[in-house]
Amino acid sequence: MGGFNMKVCALAACLLLAGQVSSYSMEDLCAQWSGSGYVGNPADCTGWGYCQGQKLVSWNTCKNGLVFNAQTSTCGFANSTICTTSAVATCAAAKSPMYVAVPDDCNKYGYCFGNGTIDYGSCGTGGVYAAHSNACIWGPACPQDSICRFMKNDIFVGDPNNCGSYLLCNNGYGTPGSCPTNTFYSAGSGNCQSTNPCTGGSGSSGSNTGSPYTVGQQVSGVCKDGKAIGSATTFYVSDTKTCYGYFYCTSTTEDGIWNSCLFGTHFDPTPQQCVSPAAYACSLNRCGNVASPFMAVFNTNCTEYEICSSSATNYCPSSNKYYDEVHNICTTKPLNYTICEAST
Ligand SMILES: *[C@@H]1O[C@H](CO)[C@@H](O)[C@H](O)[C@H]1NC(C)=O
Ligand SMILES: *[C@@H]1O[C@H](CO)[C@@H](O)[C@H](O)[C@H]1NC(C)=O
Ligand SMILES: *[C@@H]1O[C@H](CO)[C@@H](O)[C@H](O)[C@H]1NC(C)=O
Ligand SMILES: *[C@@H]1O[C@H](CO)[C@@H](O)[C@H](O)[C@H]1NC(C)=O
């Protein structure tokens, strides 16, 4: 009967009303969460994904037309569960009158008549609809536009718009928070830490700020396992800490002198040369010494890539599952770059 949805609303499910169309993917949601569990699919309110270790490890849809409730991680009847991605779908199933947010336009709100139809109202110039208070408020930020809309209640997640800060998710809304002075929120551990995970304090920002050596630095013991090629009398060895650093050695007993490959290249210890990163499967931080926003992840056949700005990893869509780091696209065919070959 008609009272059902109103009662659900009173129980705060109204807070889950649809907001903006999200530009987030499930991979983006997982990348911000240190925990394991379900997230909603921002592109389909019947869909869900499962996150583990900041990665999307599986996904599916609720059966029999049920709608996924991301806050409770359950599939619910369409007539009592808000479809976060479509106000029309919510109203089509709603059995009682209610207001809903309109996913692609926060300036508008929807009104479900309770007979399957929807009508729209406008919050006027500069106004946005705030579903949690069922009111038009002054914009421009849309209150519904948070990754928490697709995430469980009562968890902390990284703030995708403010790396190093976090959101506390509650009923689909994210309350922003910051770590104590001089500490940063790590989406990977779910804790505040002193190294900044956003600027590559750990050496993974695509710059070389994490380099353990300086150019010209002399280090003892590093040349002992090296060997000159052919008739050469000097040789080069990897610094074993970065993909792009090497030591110049004059003998196995002398100190090595550190240097970096030219920007955009990595050191391949076999020919003792700086080469295209794709031409050498470096198992260390591949984002070092390159300007690329993404780099293929070692030993994944190029099915996985790292987002250099955050160190999070991600997958290409299953239809184009291989990441081609040279052309920065997801492609259908397996790639023959060295980095994409299976290592044994
Ligand atoms: C909601 O839909 C389910 C399944 O179709 C049905 O069993 C239930 O009675 C409906 N609830 C209301 C309030 O209409
Ligand atoms: C639904 O209800 C509204 C308001 O009573 C009415 O204007 C509209 O025609 C109805 N639509 C249907 C399909 O019954
Ligand atoms: C990469 O491909 C090889 C050969 O096709 C396969 O044996 C291996 O399991 C794949 N590895 C990954 C991580 O997909
Ligand atoms: C890789 O594929 C390209 C295009 O298909 C081809 O031109 C190239 O020779 C291949 N390289 C190797 C090492 O097989």
From TrEMBL:
Pfam families the record matches: CBM_14 (PF01607)
Annotated Gene Ontology cellular component terms: extracellular region
DNA-binding among keywords: no
Keyword presence, Repeat: yes
PROSITE patterns membership: CHIT_BIND_II (PS50940)
Chitin-binding type-2 domain residues: 27-85, 88-144, 145-200, 220-284
SUPFAM superfamilies on file: Invertebrate chitin-binding proteins
GO MF annotations in UniProt: chitin binding
Keywords, ordered alphabetically: Chitin-binding, Disulfide bond, Glycoprotein, Repeat, Signal
Xref: InterPro entries: Chitin-bd_dom, Chitin-bd_dom_sf, Chitin_bind-dev_reg
Signal peptide: 1-23
Name of the protein: Peritrophin-44 isoform X1
Organism: Drosophila pseudoobscura pseudoobscura
Species lineage: Eukaryota, Metazoa, Ecdysozoa, Arthropoda, Hexapoda
